[in-house]
Amino acid sequence: MKGVFNTMTLRFDEVEHKYYLGDKELISTTTLLSKHGLSVDYSNVPEPIMERARQRGNKEHKNIEMGLKGEANIHDLSDFAIKSIETLGKHKITVLGSEIMAHNDIVAGTIDIIGLQDGLKVMVDIKTTYKIHMNTLRWQLSVYSYLHGGVDKLYCLWHNRETNKAELVDVEFIPTEKVERLLECERLGIIYTEYETNEIMNFKQSEIFYNQIKLLEYYKNFIVQLESELKPKLNELASAMSNSGIKKIENDDFNITYVAPQERVSYDYKQFLKDNGLEIPDSYKKITKVKEHVKIKTKEKEK
To answer: Rounded to two decimals, what is the model's pTM?
Structure first.
């Protein structure tokens, strides 16, 4: 069943974080994709980290919504919200509505932005994550579009933290037949998969394996993000310690030692040998055996 075909009111319980159609609870699009292995699995990420990300995302969503509806002075909005509104204008997107709920009889979701661009109906999703998980995003927006009755283009309005810009990123549709098959699998109580057979490992093992890879990638990106956020604070601390003549700070958890500016000398031995026509004698060569292994490169789009 595509879109909404009944007169019952859809509501979202902000305390339970659940959708209800009348008295019937509907599965959220986010939960649907997670259940069927079509989104990044954050179940093993510590809750404080997830809560921090949720709070930041909710805050930015609210800022952008208030700005689009004229409910707040532009100077009272966050930097990302201001840049997001400017980016939408730059790409000639006229906003028709924000925070729009859509559903059928089994699944529901909330669309961030619906708008018009050069006569085309577009859907925009706001992301504040460190990177764009493109496959997950494609599924999310394609399901939203299906529930909404269809749009012409999909976009992600993303906070690129490396450049501190609001970028509008094109998102490709998941074919409608795949979206319909996912919803039918949910209706029948079976797990959606695009694989008929797996000669290497059974599906359950594959699902756990793939989720572990995604989780590892998440932690790597989170560490990079955390280091980026800490860098200016550490620079400020170093300057303060230098000005105060303090060389070391200790507490029960760690030691902080001030390191003065200095020059570090290193040598390019390979270039030295090349420039002088020299080679390393075999007696000095060390051979290390490399065991067979696999290399994994995620296909999700990085920005």
So the answer is: 0.63
